[in-house]
Amino acid sequence: MSVPDYMQCAEDHQTVLVVVQPMGIVPEDQFFRIYKRISSVSQVSIRDSQRVLFIRYRHHYPPENNEWGDFQTHRKVVGLISVTSCNTAKEWPQTSDRFHGQKEVFGSTLYDSRLLVFGLQGEVAEQQRTDVAFYPSYDDCPDVEKRVEDFVESIFIVLESKRLDRATDKSGDKLQLLCVPFEKKDFVGLDTDSRHYKKRCQGRMRKHVGDLCLQAGMLQDALVHYHMAVELLRSVNDFLWLGAALEGLCSASVIFHYPGGTSGKSGARKPGVSSAADAGKRHRPGALTTNAISADTSTEIGRAKNCLSQEDIIEKYKEAISNYGKYKSAGVIELEACIKAVRVLAIQKRAMEASEFLQNAVYINLGQLSEEEKIQRYSVLSELYELIGFHRKSAFFKRVAAMQCVAPTIPEPGWKACYKLLLETLPGYSLSLDPKDFSKGTHRGWAAVQLRLLHELVYASRRMGNPGLSVRHLSFLLQTMLDFLSDQEKKEVTQSLENYTSKCPGGMEVISLPDGLKLPPVPFTKLPIVRSVSLLNLPASLRPHKVKGLLGQGMSSASPFIYSPITMHSRGDERSKKIGEYFNLVTLMSFNCLQIISSVCYYGTFLNMIFANVAGYHTSVFGVSSDCLLEGLVGVKSSGCMVEVVPSLPRLQLCTSLPRSAHLSSEDLSTSVSLQLFNGETQQLTITLENIGTEMLNTLELTSKTLSTKEKLFGEFLTWDLQDALSHLPLKSGQSVSIPVNISAKLDFSGQENLLHDLNDDGISVTGLPVSSPLRQVLKPRAENKPDMTEGQRTLEAVLTFKYSGGAGEVEGYYRELSLGVRVDVEPSVFFTRVSTLPATSTRQCHLLLDVFNSTEHELTLSAKNNQDLVLHASECQRMAIQVDKFDFDSIPVMDHDALRLATVRQQEEKRQQVQGGLINSTLDIHWTIISFTKGSCPDKTASVEGVLNQLILEHLQLAPLQWDVVVNGEPCDCDMIADCRVGDAVPLEVKLTNRSKSAVGPFSLTVIPFQDYQNGVQNYDLQDAITFIGSNTFYMGTVNPTENSVCVGALLFLYTGDFYLNIKFQDDSTARDLPPAWFCLPSIHIRAQEPIQAAA
């Protein structure tokens, strides 16, 4: 026997074998429908008897196996059912002949046979025959099962008669020697009269009768015959048949102990054995005669041990298999016995002993097996190992079977069968196709073996022509086995994945296999590995804001946009407010083991929603798209983010005439620009706003904020005119508007005083006393004091904020903000290192002296209003004198009444100085221009003196509250005016005081002192003989109230010609000492006395 039956089990010894075969052309699906109905009749209770006949059906059975029917009767084909199609009566004779031919194949062993004919109707079909059944069609055959039961009962009748014939054989010593096929040639010429031969015949016949009893449902009788056969066969060393007798004894005992069977099938076997009591009550006609088998077996039953214990069953199996092993031609019998023993041990939960039987089965040599037989053998070994709980061993043999399906010797490799078997090995190697099973706890199984198996799955699916399946398995390998791959293996796997996805991109769909298995998607949660998840706010340019007046209750008015993690129930969700068109979902702080992705940050769109839960993120790695859920990430606590969606708003895009700057002083800025300006320089920035959204822009506001700086800024840093832009609203999608913004860098122009020590040597003083030096003087700074002007670079920063709204969001009170950062690096230009004043010839004017230093590397020109230009070379310092009218500071309002009431004294003083300095600076209108630059590209730049004016200078530039007017001979004397008069004529002198202060002043005493200046430093005050006063030279002036005036009148008489000067001095009294000296500055009076006209004639 060369073809083993791997489905054999111990209870099969109790069955009779019936072959069901198609005959002629029978549709395969129809045949197996009928075969399934036939095989459902697996046991039949015999009428008028308590016995049950068990049937084993096969649709294919090798004829050579039938030759071993005498050795074990359950291997003998005793019944044949043929299924055929016959449509016409003409086909019937041929069909009948075929049936007879088919019976001849098993004719020597057949007890009975049946022919089921489908499709034939008419006269032939109406014939009543016991061996043939006619049916109109495969669908119209209601009594198939009933005919099969009748057929089985006929088999039982033959079986029972044969059992009785064998048991009551009267041939005495001339018993037939039962043989297996390979023994027949060995027994030729054997002495048949020897005692040894007779015992051999008796032992084999006893064993054969035991088989018949077992099939006929007489279990106790079978046990007795098996025991007797074992004793007889052991005495003559008939090892092959001894093994068969032992196996029969084991099978009968197994049937007794395990009525449900050992095959593991769901349908339980019905016990159908006669009890020992029944056997004792009735006569058993199956007893042998005195020479052969006794007619009464009661004595044998008493001696026999009858049924083996559960432990003895295994021992007898081992002995039987050991005996089989002595015969090379009994390899199939030995293999099947091992399989039966394993099934029994599986029920007994004795896995280790079962593994020994299986290990023996592995090494049984069955000769040259076909590839299909090898696949079947390894598959059955896998199933048996699985049955005893050896899952990894089972997976090993199933994998061997899978590899056998695509062996090089097979002309057409079965890649589909290989793939199916490989899938069945996964549980044995602790593998699952669900990546979720690998995210819990530590890794299970041998990673190296798992990697090999996954690679084989990838290769098999590719050879099947299913690239999508290859991508899924390779993605699974990369996701679950990443930690066990070397750098080179990672490179190879990723390259392979990229090659596969170039033809078939990977996705998140579930892949359904033909056998119903579904492959779940494989999200790449390890590429990258997510460490933490946080909900980010929108970029500043997209962030929605709520108008403060429309904030709901419970909202903070200090923050129109809520961005606070809020605990949702017990899930720890985060909530944020997003706009209906654009929003940033999550940012993932990740670790990238393959250096593919540094971080993941995604945008999305929600329309017509109030709340949305963000449960994961999306990636695309190596052509595989993944949707990763946050709740499935190891080490990440967040399970989702709740997003509040607000109505749609317009979206503006900002462009500037200056290039963008990479330097962002704040993360909330949409963009920023950076430029360099000289101190005092102004440059225009053109900002273009384009509506790139879908909503119409209705409102636009522009504000600026200068960031905190240590530098003091004079004037406005950023100025603009928004009226032209507002005239273009509403702004539709795709339209743009431009806004010019002037950037003015005007910081403190004060410099280091030690630059001009040399200029102070000429007697210049801030006190206003006369000096003899010219108004301009050039000075090169001292080498040891020359400053490093590169260290003087200063920075100004400001933010322009555009607040705009429109669309449905405007109705709900939402708006957006767009911020532009402006950074200006201010280079030093000119410095006012020292400021002083000199009195002018007029009491209402003075000279402002500015020491100017050129800190640039260029030659520049400095100019002031109504003043000559001053040229300064690089690193050159010069003095500029500017004649200015004194200022009436008291008439300038400093601040309103409410601000004045709330301000401190220091704040009031600072504000007063700021206003006064601004007035002086605007009056001077100082500009400078770099000569080497073209005038068109570099206009005049301003220079401010506000930062260098101290309190003393301001007092000198202030117009005194007491205004003194001197009139000589009818003409006012001021501004170097010379009053002409004639010798001998009376010259009237009038001194007028106008009180512009806020309080009354006086009384005052004034004395007029004449003198002559010889312009050589000598002044002559002894002029009694040259000038005489008509009246007193001292004037008295009473109290003068505010806004009032007082006039003193006198006269002089010049006796000689010449240039005379009058110096009016105040008496040193208490009233004058209480007022500042600057209030008593009277003009110097120059009178020129000439000869009388008559004398000249």
Task: Name its key features.
rod-shaped; 25 helices; single chain; alpha+beta; 1097 residues; 44 strands; Ig_TRAPPC9_Trs120_4th; six-stranded mixed β-sheet
Model description:
Helix content is 28%, strand content 25%. It has 25 helices and 44 strands. It has a six-stranded mixed beta sheet with strand order 2-3-1-4-5-6. Strands 36, 38, 39, 41, 43 and 44 form a six-stranded mixed beta sheet that branches. Strand 38 and strand 39 (1019-1020) form a beta hairpin. The chain is rod-shaped. It is found in: Golgi apparatus. Residues 184-259 form the Trs120/TRAPPC9 N-terminal domain.
Write the layout of secondary structure elements.
Blueprint: E1 15-23, H1 28-39, E2 43-45, E3 52-58, H2 63-66, E4 77-85, H3 92-105, E5 112-118, E6 132-135, H4 144-167, H5 195-215, H6 219-235, H7 239-257, H8 276-281, H9 298-303, H10 310-324, H11 331-347, H12 351-362, H13 371-387, H14 391-405, H15 415-425, H16 447-463, H17 467-480, H18 487-503, E7 511-512, E8 518-519, E9 529-535, E10 544-546, E11 574-579, E12 583-591, E13 599-604, E14 611-614, E15 616-621, E16 624-629, E17 641-646, E18 652-656, E19 671-678, E20 682-691, E21 699-706, E22 718-720, H19 723-726, E23 736-744, E24 778-779, E25 794-805, H20 807-811, E26 814-827, E27 830-839, E28 845-854, E29 860-863, E30 870-872, E31 877-885, H21 897-902, H22 905-924, E32 927-930, E33 941-942, H23 951-957, E34 962-968, E35 971-972, E36 978-982, E37 986-995, E38 1004-1013, E39 1019-1020, E40 1027-1030, E41 1034-1037, E42 1045-1054, E43 1058-1066, H24 1070-1073, E44 1085-1090, H25 1093-1096
Parallel strand pairs: 1-3, 1-4, 4-5, 5-6, 11-17, 19-26, 36-44
Antiparallel strand pairs: 2-3, 7-8, 9-12, 10-26, 12-13, 14-17, 15-16, 18-20, 20-23, 21-25, 22-23, 24-31, 25-26, 27-28, 28-31, 29-30, 29-32, 32-33, 34-35, 34-37, 37-42, 38-39, 38-41, 38-43, 40-42, 43-44
Helix pairs in contact: 4-5, 5-6, 5-7, 6-7, 7-10, 10-11, 11-12, 13-14, 14-15, 15-16, 16-17, 17-18
